[in-house]
Design a protein that fits this description.
Layout: E1 7-10, H1 16-27, E2 31-36, H2 39-49, E3 56-60, H3 66-79, E4 85-88, H4 105-130, E5 136-141, H5 148-151, H6 164-186, E6 191-196, E7 201-202, H7 210-215, E8 219-220
Parallel strand pairs: 1-2, 1-4, 2-3, 4-5, 5-6, 7-8
Helix pairs in contact: 3-4, 4-6
This protein binds NADP nicotinamide-adenine-dinucleotide phosphate.
Length: about 220
């Protein structure tokens, strides 16, 4: 990894945690590709970073739109030829505080489209590019909200949280992470696959107010 430039794709890189990841990894010398579903928002975010970041490029990437994911993979193949790190960061919640007894199937589908199917589609379509790198990583931004252990533990901050669609989709993404990681090992490919929980971060996640989230104990976004 030392001799070849590290090329990193961050989905949902135009704001929130994704934007901070783009900034910090580019400052560390990685060549970062910001995935943004609205190019205009991505451009604005890159302008905002201009003086504080290193090499940052932009690609249109809506993880719920298979054609967009295919195009992004083709663009990366043409421009760079390989990918070293994929950070599946794009995520959203559509059923916050909705009762498990009555949550709509429409909201459950929306939760799964981005947090599970989107993550799987991006991983699968970027895999051929990751295989071209001497060593590669997939890092899935998951959440403690997807842990059944935490949901059943009265001591856990997640115990009282209710967003069954989001939680189920993150749990499913965790299982996909495990299975893909094991497959990479079985095939002796130098690609690690991990999921991480960033903890509570003060962003606009779930149409939230970052300032309020900070008051409630969220880390600065
Ligand atoms: N904040 C927390 O406390 C927390 C805790 C645990 C885990 N997480 C996870 O961390 C990740 C980032 O969350 P965040 O707090 O940074 O959220 P955020 O501030 O709401 O940012 C979400 C990002 O995802 C993008 N996005 C939404 N739908 C998309 C789609 N269909 N395709 C591509 N990008 C899409 C958004 O782009 P637009 O600007 O176009 O909407 C935005 O860039 C998520 O996976 C979330 O589940 C967050």
């Amino acid at each position: 990894m030392n001799t070849v430039e590290v090329i990193t794709l961050v989905t949902g890189g135009n704001r929130g945690m994704g934007l901070e990841i783009v900034k910090e990894l580019s400052q560390k010398g990685q060549h970062v590709i910001m995935g943004s579903r609205q190019l205009e928002n991505g451009r604005r975010a890159i302008e905002q970073l201009a003086t504080t970041s290193g090499k940052v490029d932009l690609v249109q990437l809506d993880v719920t739109d298979p054609a967009s994911v295919t195009r992004a993979a083709q663009t990366i193949a043409t421009k760079y030829g390989y990918l070293t790190i994929l950070i599946n960061n794009a995520g959203a919640v559509f059923d916050h505080r909705q009762s498990a007894a009555t949550v709509t199937s429409e909201n459950l589908h929306l939760d799964f489209e981005i947090n599970y199917f989107g993550l799987v589609d991006v991983s699968q379509k970027m895999l051929p590019l990751l295989k071209k790198s001497p060593q590669a990583k997939i890092i899935n931004i998951s959440s403690m909200m997807g842990s059944k252990t935490a949901a059943l533990d009265p001591q856990s901050s997640v115990y009282k949280a209710v967003a069954v669609g989001y939680q189920s989709a993150k749990a499913a993404a965790n299982m996909y992470t495990v299975q893909l990681a094991k497959e990479m090992l079985r095939e002796k490919l130098p690609i690690t696959v991990n999921a991480i929980d960033p903890g509570m971060v003060a962003t606009e996640f779930g149409s939230g107010d970052p300032e309020l989230a900070k008051k409630n104990g969220g880390h600065a976004g």
